[in-house]
Amino acid sequence: MITPAFELTQDPDFLTIIIKVPYARASEFDVYFEGEDFKFYAKPYFLRQLTLPGRIVEDGREKASYDTDKGTFTIRLPKEIPGQYFEGLDMLTSLLAPKKSRSAKPLVEEIAASAELSEEEEEEFDWEIEQIPYEESAESTLPLQYRYGFGNLRSGVFQRLQDELSDVIDIRDPDQTPVDERRRKRLAAEAAKFEPDHYLADFFEDEAIQHVLKYKPWWVDAHKKMIALQRESHQEHDTHTFVVFSEEEREQLRKFTNKSYLLDKRSRHHVYLGLIDILLAYCYEICVNEGDKNVESSWNIRKLSATLCWLESFTSVHDVLVSFGRRVLCYPLHRHFGLVTRAFNDTVMILQLGK
Known about the structure:
Layout: E1 5-10, E2 14-20, E3 30-42, E4 45-56, E5 63-67, E6 72-78, H1 92-96, H2 107-112, H3 119-123, H4 179-193, H5 196-204, H6 207-213, H7 218-232, H8 247-255, H9 265-288, H10 297-304, H11 306-309, H12 317-328, H13 337-352
Antiparallel strand pairs: 1-2, 2-6, 3-4, 5-6
Helix pairs in contact: 9-10, 9-12, 9-13, 12-13
């Protein structure tokens, strides 16, 4: 079976689901919906489970149509509560996730509370958990390893990559380097790399810089539309109105695995700050190349983001901004502080546009 391409839109009273099934027979299809559940089948396409962010009802107003030219089913479903705003309709990965994986209950609590489960729930327990044989090791032989990565959940990742490490990150032996030492080494490397002549040349001969600063990426117009609508009405608006994913991007969202992580408050704080750091580097790259990608794009983003390049674990937004500003003035081709402040403003716009 093939998971079809689909997208969702809404108005105050209806949820509209557009499903692309170019090779299906219009006369042979099944639709099931109840509450937050929606399923669709039209051989060879099968939308096994769509978990909606709000409830829909069957009251005679529902309607389905098929466009033979485009090969799309358009299904309009009434909302149980008229006027309710359904959040996250463009987050296709989350919508495709099974209900139990979308639970807000932490995994540790689910295991600990297993004694309180009903018999019916116990029968649904997934026994096919990967088994790893236990190997006893003397505690003294285990080297101390420092954590890094998303939520500081990883360690030992780079042990076998010492020869290739310089192509991935700038720090040597991260598993044996604590956070404070990583930061000291990063600051020393930046200070050694800064070239006053390069900086002054970009500062005084800034025609190329001023040219790229005039470029308007996609989020500028989207942000203007959002601000204009917010001024007209204080009601929430679907992010889908302002940010439209391409078909390639929607396909990628459908392929993503919906993962949940057990992060404490401090870890979430590190994750959010790391996201800001990566977004700043992304905004710089889009601006200086005027929206075009090239063979240096991934290097630029990695080099400007201390989160990616030095496995930095930031503790404040101020530290993120200072780190990004320093790295812009040390590493890329264009080293101008106007590009730093431009990336600040662009990142703010992207974050204000929502998830």
